[in-house]
Amino acid sequence: MMLNNSVKEIFSAIKEEILKANRIVLSSHINPDGDNLGSVLGMYSVLKQMGKEVYPIIDDEIPKDYKFLPSSEVIKRPEEINFTPDLFITLDSATLDRIGKSKEIFEKAKKTINFDHHKTNDSYADLNYVSEKSATGEVLFEFFHTEKIDINKAAATCLYTAISSDTGSFKYDSTSSYTFYAASELMKKGIDINEIAVNLYQNRSKSKTKLLIEVASKIKYYFDDKVGLGKVTNDIMESVGAEKHDSEGIVEFIRDIEGLELAVLLKEKKDGGVRLSMRSKSQLDCAKIASFFGGGGHTRAAGATIDLPIDKAEEVLIEEIKKQL
Amino acid sequence: MMLNNSVKEIFSAIKEEILKANRIVLSSHINPDGDNLGSVLGMYSVLKQMGKEVYPIIDDEIPKDYKFLPSSEVIKRPEEINFTPDLFITLDSATLDRIGKSKEIFEKAKKTINFDHHKTNDSYADLNYVSEKSATGEVLFEFFHTEKIDINKAAATCLYTAISSDTGSFKYDSTSSYTFYAASELMKKGIDINEIAVNLYQNRSKSKTKLLIEVASKIKYYFDDKVGLGKVTNDIMESVGAEKHDSEGIVEFIRDIEGLELAVLLKEKKDGGVRLSMRSKSQLDCAKIASFFGGGGHTRAAGATIDLPIDKAEEVLIEEIKKQL
After folding, report:
1. Of the four listed, A7, A282, B25, B94, which is most buried by Cβ atoms within 10 Å?
2. B212 and B194 share one domain
3. Does B120 touch chain A (CB under 8 A)?
4. Same domain, yes or no, for A170 and A21?
5. Considering B201, B218, B235, which residue would you say is the last residue of a domain?
6. Residues 262..321 of B with a Cβ closer than 8 Å to A: which?
7. How far is B237 from chain A (nearest CA, A)?
8. B164, B177, B199, B200, best to mutate vs chain A, most A CBs in 10 Å
9. B65 touches chain A (CB under 8 A)
10. Chain B, 188-217: which have a CB under 8 Å from a chain A CB?
11. For chain A, how big is the Rg over CA atoms in Å?
């Protein structure tokens, strides 16, 4: 891939700052996912190998699904950092507020760098490299690979996990020729993709499984079966012993039904109201529907919060979908 | 990738035969899947572009899931071929018997070529290129790419589909650095991976969905939940209006439950007996258990037929698994 001059310049400047720094703090955002954690820990392993003192911090709990990532145990909370870092690197955070309390440390750091793949990133650091790739893991791969910085096996495992999890295993539109090139190069480091696949994709908890089956057995169809709708009520959550994140994956399960153009999941919030998630296959614009409710997202995946009881929310939503069909 | 001399020689010999031939017949095997059809139609598009008369034949029905593949409508049945081909190319067939009635045409062809990725392939053609890659689609990519034979967009769509479907979207162990390299190069041809993903992975029929939910809601657990077992009875099949292939994917759904090491699916056969399918995550050897029942397969995916009523088969199977745990 040919890089333009401005990318070359920013890469040189970033590399220079890294070489100069001794104590480096790394941070992803609150509600961390596979791309965040993979990017933070991938960067960690590379910088450790370069002989740096590196402190990955996240202002949140680490989901247990990602405990298999090399060095995940070294992640600290922001309150554990009581020094002024030479360098603070944010990963996968479109705005500075996304990093939570880590922001206080960012603000006193001598120098800051921002690596991200969200086009909405507002370039809040001293040096910013934002590239609309499939994952921040892919952005980091591009930087290391271009700058000939060695990616060891642990780092490769983390960056591969970042890319795989943020593309639904290379299925989303954001997957490009370069995404596959990155995966090809990372595999040359001897990573174990079976271990990664087991942890990312073969790890559905029993309560999650029960919840999925319960909700899926009651899918409602609208508009000649073009729309499928599932409801996660507090009652169902309780009856199957489900936890906070157990409804993840249900809306995709509904989307994957043949002939369906739009999948909808309504989830009762504990403090009232409903969380709406939508997925579409090709034509329908989820973001447009979400925006009616003050929400947002992308064409094929969007969401919103509706301050109505779940059955009323369903009614209003169906009316809105009717207009868009 | 460096190729050894024998590969270079076989590629030259194959290319020479293709260039010499005018009327070429292509065949995959009975019960065709994404890799077979993608390989046959990928080879078709490449050879058509080279100006050849090409006849893809398959001695079976084409599953409707693959009708989206470019030129799928040109596939014929063997009985429609009433001439002597200059060249017959088999794709993805480990033995000649696998191609069904197409064998008669193979036997009278002036020259034959065999492209495959199964290590059990017995090299039954005049020229054989068998390489243990993730998919025959990847084997064909290697041949075209090495020999600098142009892969057009239609062919790239077919070869990508072959690779994606035979690796469960780049998740299986058979996925290598070269697999990703192939995907990276194929994407440069402008293929639409969203269209492919919708057709391969977002296309679960309603009857299949109902069957999955019904069977999954009754999973039985054994040995401290290390083993999960589902049963597809003729009664359940009938009650949800399920068709022949609707039980596909259920055993993988069971495997993906957290903590489970082995997933088992027992499916009643219409003419008596039970079809056993197994998937494991890492340690347990499915092939070893299958072999006890006269079946076979791989470490992480194997199957067998058990000539017992379904409840009795479950009992015997659980005893056998106990020995292996």
Report:
1. B25
2. no
3. no
4. yes
5. B201
6. 281-282
7. 16
8. B177
9. no
10. 188, 193-195, 197-198, 201-206, 209, 213, 216-217
11. 21
Q: How far apart are CA A127 and CA A21, in angstroms?
A: 14
Q: State both tokens at B207.
A: 């009857």
Alpha-carbon distance A95 to A122, whole Å?
A: 6
Q: What is the spatial distance between Cα A154 and Cα B63, in angstroms, rounded to a whole number?
A: 42
**Amino acid (one-letter) located at B305:** T
Give the residue from B218, B301, B310 showing the smallest Cα distance to B266: B310
Residues in A touching B184 (Cβ below 8 Å): 177-181, 184
Which pLDDT value is given to residue B297?
85
Pick from A164, A177, A225: CB nearest B184: A177
State whether residue B224 sits within 8 Å of chain A by CB. no
Go through chain A and tell me how many residues it has: 325
Which tens digit of pLDDT belongs to each residue from A259-291? 999 999 999 998 889 999 999 998 799 999 999
CATH classification at residue A317: 3.10.310.30
Considering the domain architecture, whether residues B77 and B164 belong to the same structural domain is answered as yes
Are A162 and A245 contained in the same domain?
no
Structure tokens at B277: 């399918």
The vertex-A170 CA angle with A153 and A132, nearest 5°, equals: 85
Chain A CB contacts of B167 under 8 Å are none
Looking only at the bridges linking them, the beta strands covering B296-297 and A87-91 are unpaired
Q: Which residue, B232, B213, B239, B231, is CA-closest to A213?
A: B213
pLDDT at site B271: 86
List the domain range (segments joined by +) for residue B249.
Answer: 206-324
Question: Per-residue pLDDT tens for B73-130?
Answer: 999 999 999 999 999 999 999 999 999 999 999 999 999 999 999 988 999 999 999 9
Determine the angle formed by the axes of helices B136-146 and B153-166, rounding to 10 degrees: 140
Show residues of chain B in contact with A227, CB under 8 Å.
none
